[in-house]
Amino acid sequence: MPIADKKLDRLSFYDLIPESMQELLVKEGTEVSANKESIIFYEGEVPKHIYFILEGQVRLTKTSAEGKVFFLQKKKQYDLLGELSIFNSLKYQYNAEVTQGALLLRFTCNQLERLLIAHEELAIAFMKWLSKENQVMMAQFRDLVFCGKQGAVFSILVRLSNEYGQPVSQGILINRKITNQELANYVGATRESINRILKRLIKQKIISVNTKYITIHDLPFLQAHLRCSHCPFEECTI
What we know:
Blueprint: H1 19-28, E1 30-34, E2 39-41, E3 49-63, E4 69-75, E5 80-81, E6 95-108, H2 109-118, H3 120-146, H4 148-164, E7 165-168, E8 171-174, H5 180-187, H6 191-203, E9 207-210, E10 213-216, H7 219-226
Antiparallel strand pairs: 1-6, 2-6, 3-4, 3-5, 3-6, 7-8, 8-10, 9-10
């Protein structure tokens, strides 16, 4: 049976395919589970499988030669993992770490390639989804490269508010605990740099922090710095 409907923050690969293809996808995959903090695959490994997330969340990261970890993106329900290896045998381009206990459908690369070749609707949905995912990644790199470390922090705060924001009397509460180290990993900065940037924002009354929960009091300030009104990208989440 098709997976139960669920409201998502953005269109997933699963949302883009017709019900008959949804049933086929579920039928063809092999269910596997992955515990929190487990690694599904490492950057640089030869790809053997492509994964479809039924439940849970997976964080994509890259690690520098010096061991510095950089957070790329969060994958969640109905997203694919390892999709860049389809039709080209590219090695995995990132580490895939489970951040919330996950239930996955596993496909061999050849198996999923055959499905895409045999079913035009599935192939079109895959290309549409891949284009959207690329848009999300390009938007993140835009903010990191062109807005500097401070702008990158502003960008992450805006993205977090879009994904986890809850309106409160003082502004927007990011309804998820987030540490300075996590912010540092998202923008490729040191924790000390993040501390300084956040302290300035607190002093300016742009944000406040209470037990690792951040409330944004002046979202337009952050958006103006990032020139959000001129941003060509539609997606703005982590």
